[in-house]
Amino acid sequence: MFPALSQAPGDTDPLQYADLADLSAAAPIIVHATIKQAIKVDPERAPNAPPGTQRFYIIASTNALIRGQGGVGETIRYVIDLPLDARGRAPKIKKQPFIIFARRPSSGGDNIQLIAEDGQIAWSEVREQRVRSLVRELVDRDAPPAISRIASAFHVPGTIIGEGETQIFMETETGSPISITVLKRDGQQKFWAVSLGEIVDEAARAPVRNSLLWYRLACFLPAQLPAASLTSDIAANARQAQSDYRLVLRDLGNCPRSRQP
Predict the structure, then answer these.
(1) What is the pTM of this model?
(2) At 1, which helix (H) or strand (E)?
(3) What is the C-alpha to C-alpha distance for residues 27 and 16, in angstroms, rounded to an integer?
(4) Strand 75-83 to strand 164-172: parallel, antiparallel, or no bridges (unpaired)?
(5) Partners of 81 in the beta sheet?
(6) Strand runs (DSSP E) across the chain, as ranges?
(7) Residue 182, Cβ neighbours under 10 Å: how many?
(8) What is the pLDDT of residues 168-211, one digit of tens each?
């Protein structure tokens, strides 16, 4: 995880959409800040610091609040473990701008707590805009929720050979359902779509890559339909449901990350 802590983004940002989505979804507070002081913490006072790191007590000035109900003060304070190089030196971060992904600890005040060991990433205008776009999606009242599991899946053959419809229903962390419908009509190419809510939306479409709905599906769906989710007693229909599910996964594509979620 550590390379993202102080790595400045170049022309090609090493952080993928899923990396920023993982951090943004988990962080109730996101701040663009500049480091004012980075005070070394004696190893004796940081016995749980990961090997090969130096713990710092950070005092930073707030440049902009990207996410955070109730806001934050002009100054924020937090602790971070920074990786040491081959010569045992930590990166120099004083006066450098970062995007901070954090939560409020019980101690309150100016203190915040990073949501992950790499919850401090180098700032750039492009990165900030990417994070702001993600936050807008996350806080939208119609935002697709995180998927808990695939609840059920079944295939219904059509009246003409080759036609049919597969429906896959998912449970989510908020209780709002998400469903996938895969359709094959006579003379038409097979297509699929995602519906949010109780009613299957005939106007629904497949999600755009690097959108929040794409992230919820591509990054968290299992590699195959769980056997318990297949409701058909007919083996051919169960096989077709699995085949249609694989089509969905192929179309979604992989979910690249440069950090571990």
Answers:
(1) 0.89
(2) none
(3) 17
(4) unpaired
(5) 55
(6) 29-40, 53-67, 75-83, 97-103, 113-114, 120-122, 147-157, 164-172, 178-184, 191-196
(7) 23
(8) 999 999 999 899 999 988 778 889 999 987 766 666 789 999 99
